[in-house]
């Protein structure tokens, strides 16, 4: 097989990226995370549409989830469900996400590996965005008439390049900011059904200070949030406790047990979280990731860890063939990515926070890819050679 040169890649990937009007910079720092919905679009209060009725609008998604999933979720309080989908079905203006997922499941209904992808959507609540990223990339390749195969074994995609060479591309989605996004949808649902207003976030004065170095999985860190250091099981338990306490306090307000009170504050100093709830009829909601030390090496640490995992653990990018790693960024911190992209663009080469020696040498290309919920092209992307 001919060697894959930067010129070949440029002819296929870089030009294609330019044609679909992508940006080579990741989104700049935001106080609020993208939720696919703005605060003004979410009704302040309202009754759920029956989840069964909404699910019927998306036949391929309904088939992927199955009757067992539906029967289980109708018995679970949506704010307590492990599945973000259970809340997407019940919050107005999240239709764009559901429509995109239905579109992707329809496009690739019979593609190799789709049985496993449908199973993940049904059984693994944390794998939802991972699966969307894989299918969205496949749709983008299809839209741009780039020849490729979806596989059951090895890399997710085998992409045919201009000279007939094959480039294996493995897609992966780090879940660093998943807990923030998860809490945002839980609070959005609670706000909608209670009619209360809320302001919450990870505030600098509350966030515990910790130390790490550039060789850690999170880069150089001097402050931390729930999604920085906590393992999944502990983070899940904390989320469950936050939701339970919130619902209990709201029930007390509504019952009159909190005499004279019009709101409350929930604080979790162990993770730097503070949430204020009050009743003013506006249905206001905001969530802030909070101030902290920018992570210069954080995004590269995510790339490095993903590359090592795909080569050494899952064996999906085995040595011996030039390969590419595609990193979905929908669950990474926008502030970290924006700060990192600024450094990549503006500093001298010797100071750029990229160490190719840290990842297996046959991975020559890294693509950072953020899903657009409204279009079959990325919201933004960055190709590293």
Write the SSE topology.
Elements: H1 6-19, H2 51-55, H3 59-73, H4 84-88, H5 95-107, H6 114-123, H7 128-143, E1 148-150, E2 157-160, E3 166-172, H8 178-194, E4 197-202, H9 226-229, H10 232-255, E5 263-268, E6 273-278, E7 285-288, H11 298-313, E8 323-328, H12 334-346, E9 363-370, E10 380-384
Parallel strand pairs: 3-8, 4-7, 8-9
Antiparallel strand pairs: 1-2, 2-3, 4-6, 5-6, 9-10
What is the total domain count? 1
Low-confidence stretches: 6-48
Find the count of extended strands (DSSP E, 2+ residues): 10
Helical percentage: 25-40%
Biggest β-sheet, characterized?
6 strands, mixed
Give the termini separation: 20 Å
Q: Multimeric state of these chains?
A: single chain
What is the strand arrangement across the widest sheet?
1-2-3-8-9-10
Number of DSSP helices?
A: 12
Give, in order, the helices and strands.
Answer: HHHHHHHEEEHEHHEEEHEHEE
**Overall geometry:** globular
Rounded to an integer, what's the Rg over CA atoms?
22 Å
Kindly estimate the percentage of residues that lie in beta strands according to DSSP: 5-15%
Average pLDDT for all residues: 81
Alpha-beta classification: alpha/beta
């Amino acid at each position: 097989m001919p060697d894959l040169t930067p010129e070949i890649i440029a002819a296929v990937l870089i030009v294609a990226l330019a044609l679909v009007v992508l940006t080579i910079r990741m989104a700049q720092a935001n106080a609020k995370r993208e939720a696919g919905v703005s605060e003004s679009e979410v009704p302040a209060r309202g009754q759920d549409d029956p989840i069964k009725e909404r699910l019927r609008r998306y036949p391929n998604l309904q088939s992927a989830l199955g009757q067992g999933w539906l029967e289980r979720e109708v018995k679970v309080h949506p704010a307590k469900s492990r599945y973000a989908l259970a809340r997407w079905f019940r919050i107005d203006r999240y239709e764009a996400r559901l429509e995109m997922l239905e579109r992707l499941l329809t496009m690739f209904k019979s593609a190799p590996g789709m049985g496993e992808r449908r199973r993940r959507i049904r059984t693994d609540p944390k794998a939802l965005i991972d699966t969307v990223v894989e299918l969205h990339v496949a749709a983008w390749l299809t839209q741009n008439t780039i020849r490729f195969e979806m596989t059951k074994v090895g890399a997710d995609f085998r992409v045919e390049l201009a000279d007939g060479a094959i480039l294996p591309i493995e897609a992966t989605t780090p879940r660093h900011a998943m807990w923030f996004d998860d809490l945002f949808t839980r609070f959005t649902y609670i706000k909608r059904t209670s009619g209360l207003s809320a302001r919450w976030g990870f505030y600098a004065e509350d966030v515990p200070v910790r130390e790490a170095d550039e060789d850690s999985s999170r880069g150089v860190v001097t402050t931390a949030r729930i999604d920085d250091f906590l393992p999944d099981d502990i983070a899940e338990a904390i989320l469950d406790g936050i939701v339970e306490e919130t619902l209990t306090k709201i029930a007390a307000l509504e019952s009159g047990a909190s005499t004279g009170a019009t709101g409350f504050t929930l604080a979790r100093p162990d993770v730097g979280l503070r949430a204020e709830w009050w009743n003013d009829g506006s249905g206001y909601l905001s969530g802030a990731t909070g101030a902290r030390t920018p992570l210069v090496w954080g995004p590269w640490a995510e790339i490095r860890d993903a590359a090592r995992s795909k080569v050494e653990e899952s064996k999906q990018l085995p040595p011996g063939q030039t390969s590419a790693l595609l990193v979905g960024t929908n669950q990474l911190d926008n502030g970290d990515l924006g700060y990192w992209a600024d450094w990549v663009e503006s500093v001298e080469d010797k100071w750029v926070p990229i160490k190719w020696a840290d990842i297996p040498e046959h991975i020559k290309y890294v693509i950072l890819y953020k899903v657009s919920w409204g279009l079959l092209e990325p919201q933004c992307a960055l190709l590293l050679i």
